Amino acid sequence: MPEAERSRDLLEKVAEKLRQPVAFSEGAAGSILATAGARYRIPIDEELTQPTGFDPNAAVLFEAVVESAYLVATADGHFDADERAAFEHVVLAACGGNVSEAQLRALLADLADLRDEDGPEKRVQMVARTITRPDQACEVLRVAALIAEVSEGVSEVERQLLDRMATEFRLEPGAVDRVIADVQRALAE
Q: Is CATH 1.10.3680 the classification given to domain 3-188?
């Protein structure tokens, strides 16, 4: 199979896994990314006074999930146009059209500014303030690890950032190992 086709297949598989709920989230209709993305609505016209469908809690959760994946994706200091396009593709596909390309690009631009301004350590701490439940924290790690798999797997520096997140989330030792093993198993199916 040609490399481009194999890469496209991996992107689609990652996007599919990002849509699915994890095994430990009984009764969930979709992953944390897909569920929060479905309720992520940014009003186009801020002057609008009628109900807009904007859910501030879903917006905060969605942005924290995307930021955690973004921090892992940029951990090695390399986030070129191909990696960015792959990142955008899998997030947009996982959200099933509920998040526009323009919204995601604006969010990624904001996240880049925040990372440059605050540094990744502070941004991990900020994400941890939002993600307070252990089940959500494990799923946030899963989303970040799945997206890391798109670019040649979870590198050592990405792994270190996942470990830092797990520590900030106050997860038990071995959580990152379990998440990465689950991700690799899911992608091997």
A: yes
